[in-house]
User: Fold this.
Amino acid sequence: MLGCRVLNIFRRTIISDKKVITVFGPTSQNSLQSHPSLNKRSVSFSCRSHMCGDIRSSNVGESVTIAGWIQTTRLDKFILLRDRTGLIQVYVPDSSRCKHLLNLPNESVITVTGTVRSRPQEQVNMKMETGDVEVELDGVVKVSAAKPSLPFQQNAHLLPKEDTRLQFRYLDLRRKKLQDNLKFRSDLIMNMRKFLIGEKFLDIETPTLFRRTPGGAKEFVVPSRIKNRFYSLVQSPQQFKQLLMVGGLDRYFQIARCYRDEGGKPDRQPEFTQVDLEMSFCDREDVLNLTESLLNAVWPSALNTPLRRITYQEAMTNYGVDKPDLRFGNQILHVSEIFERSGFDILEEHLDGTTNIAALVMFESNREDGGKVLKNIEKASKLQLKDHLERFNQEKLSIVSSVSIIDGEIKNSILKKCNPEIKERLRSRLCMENGIGFLVFGPESFVLPVLGRQRLLLGNELLEDLNDRPDEMLWVLDFPLFTTEEGVLESAHHPFTAPHPEDEHLFRSDPLQCRSLHYDLVLNGQEIAGGSVRIHSGSDQRFVLEEVLDEDTSELEHLLQALDSGCPPHAGIAIGLDRLTAILTKSDSIRDVIAFPKSGEGRDLMAGAPSAITGEQKLLYHLAD
Assistant:
């Protein structure tokens, strides 16, 4: 290598200018450590003795072997070498016969040996963790040159568009933020495993190839070599973990891969990971306490437990969503009584405070561009709530109106059409000098979700310190057991959820009014876990599937038979690992905490999946004649 001394430590013979060490048999840890350049190693099972970011002033005088990617070269004498632990400066002396390394393209991979030395005082870089030392080059072990013109370089100040980064994900993975996120995720999973194993849970793998599960999300279908027979990829291990409880394996967990065909959603992935838990002979309280203890064991800081709890009804009434962000207050104000005898015909005719209501959400603000903010948020909320708004567009009363308050004066288009005293009543209720928000009229099922979305949009826009505020975690309890979607009854959680014991008298007579033992864990306005107490009676499960949901129970006959075989009471929860990690690392997207994510449209831009298959494959799987 151009006269440069080469240490071939990937083979059995290690060559240096002092001696030759012949290693009989496979190169061992001990044999490599006998070489002077590999003493005091901090890396096991590797040709390296140290990671780049681990070298400190305490290593001065030591011979080291380091490897990594060339971040940059400078002054025709320095190489900045990078691995996932950080950067180290390599000094190439003028007399070195290895100067050719300085001509390698950035992102080339090199393995080199050298001696750690202190930097001259005037060259110390306090912005680098290794900024007071450098490695004086001694020899080269290996070089793997990169192409001179890669799609993008590692530049923290110049981030390519996300589609480009997803297409060349192997380059994007060299970015420190992504590497730190994946390290955080790895540590989080390991700590969760340690806690659960300590609580006598068993880590049990379950199949991903299964059959359709009725009453849930859309599933990915996988063809088989048997004509007209298909697998489905599991939405979750739900049935398997219940069957494990029937089988007497009374404490189960799994880092589970799950699959849902939900189309292109920016904040979702077609395949995702959850920490899946199930246990027998327990109730809701046991699962909530277990989950809080688990999170306390892995959380970066101490959690204030027991966590706050609110009901689903409280969440919807006060915040308009079932996963409220409690880092800020700004609850929905119900003001139907203020608009009594308003003098505005449409309100006089339809606003009764029961069938139709009036409510608003307000934020204190003296921003000069308040009008522009309201227009932007109204536009964003209409886009995000398109289906919801269309569902109510035939209602006799469905009004969304912006509100601004400047120096105590309320400006609103609806108030202009009302008697003057209505504005005074509202002013007295708000007690606000400057602010912006929205006033909404219509059925409660229309009003609350609209205000809930606008509350979140206003909070994100107006509260500059929102992401610096303390995390707010809470349980949402007592969800309805069933909901209606276009007149059809559906499970609010899934069809295996048990009814609330206080509503058991409604379970068969009026199931739509029955609450469930479903619970969600919410962090900063995002659901990070959800679970329920399960139905463990075969007859109750048949009633839900056949009488309420009108499902074909033949697809679940195996589960129904199991429930009739002596099934213990059981409950569980699934923690969304991707979303939890994204929140804890303050990442903008769950794609930033997944090594190889799909795009917002559910595509793999790097490999081009989903892709076409050949005619021969279609014949093999009976997809063509």
Notes: The chain is about 25% helix and 25% strand. The longest strand covers residues 63-74. Confidence is low (pLDDT under 50) at residues 8-39.
